């Protein structure tokens, strides 16, 4: 008998993928039941040569698509010279150019500085470290439903218990969670702002709060956008108490909202921001950007990372910026958004189990319910729709506290013809329910 706890749900694995079962932990079993063989922009082919439209996009990473030629060109050039140097020891120009570009582009008016790391969670960890150091304050406020990564502090900040936190506690005591506004489920902006004011008046002294961390649109938490006015009020409250406002733009960054950064979309300026996913065009890279005074506060070598600012990932990121600058990417997003909004809204009108369609830009979430009146979340139906979509050749995944929201995370470079094709495939999947 095992002395270890065993998870009750062990996912099954198709025969042809038994090598996965033999070699990787069951909690890490993939969702797809075939191996990926090839990717090109918004399309992938599996080992059985079945073609899919990839609206998972490596979980909102492939904003510029699979193997974007501009990204590939930069990476190939870099591979002629060297592949790694730990930036803190031997600097390289790709990293500095990228930091300069991000500092120029991120919509914080004051001078900013950028620190490069490898993943969203690492960026979040570092943002909190820097915020605590700069303010000399201890407490952090985050949101229920928020997702910030899987390392301990990021997990502590994450406000979705299952599957991310269950069994892994305890978590740092200096973190408090408040609700995230959710119009469809009657959690109003006002209600949440009152919660925050109460927390700061009665439970924690605002003078001890270093930062509030918020996603402009919940990702894992259900593709729920925060309104401009909610974020503006959060800005007013944080200014009043000299609390730093940190946007976690790991998912909203790099064009998905229709603007290069979500902060421009909602017209609210944070003090710091975390970026990852789309930044590296498919190569691992992440960033913490913040007002220079804050970023410079930390003592020498207090932050760092062996692989952070990989020359290859930085080259890829410069390729991503080339795509933005030369291929009218934001125009493409606007056109995609028009098609998606029109199609998904029409599906909402046609199907009783489509409760809500929402999200900034092309970050569209479709909330599946038993029926419009009861609004009872239906993960079961959502899973069926995702399976039907896959049979039709469209890859999608779910999100949300109840797992009943289907989200679209396709490349910004998806040809409009394929966006329409995806909408038809999705409509077909709903019709089969
Ligand atoms: C908003 C947000 N923050 C942080 C993370 C963690 O990023 P990573 O998986 O690269 O550590 C994610 C990942 O999905 C995310 O969506």
What does this structure look like?
The protein is of the alpha/beta class. The chain is built from 14 helices and 15 strands. It is globular, with a radius of gyration of 21 Å.
In short:
This protein is α/β, with parallel strands linked by helices. It has 14 helices and 15 strands.
Topology of helices and strands:
Elements: H1 18-23, E1 36-40, E2 43-46, E3 51-54, H2 57-60, H3 69-79, H4 93-105, E4 112-117, H5 120-135, E5 139-143, H6 152-157, E6 175-178, H7 189-203, E7 209-214, H8 228-241, E8 244-248, H9 262-266, E9 272-275, E10 286-291, H10 292-295, H11 311-326, H12 329-350, E11 354-358, E12 365-368, H13 379-392, E13 394-395, E14 397-399, E15 405-407, H14 416-431
Parallel strand pairs: 3-13, 5-6, 5-7, 7-8, 8-9
Antiparallel strand pairs: 1-2, 2-3, 4-10, 9-10, 11-12, 12-15, 14-15
Helix pairs in contact: 3-11, 4-11, 7-8, 12-14, 13-14
This protein binds pyridoxal-5'-phosphate (PLP).
The site of pyridoxal-5'-phosphate has 15 residues, from helix 5.
Helix content, binned percent: 25-40%
What would you call the structural class? alpha/beta
| Strand order in space, largest sheet | 4-10-9-8-7-5-6
CATH architecture of the largest domain: 3-Layer(aba) Sandwich
**The CATH class of the largest domain:** Alpha Beta
What about the largest sheet? Answer: 7 strands, mixed
- Which kinds of small molecule does this entry bind, naming each only once? pyridoxal-5'-phosphate
Name the overall outline. globular
Number of domains: 2
Cα separation of the termini: 43 Å
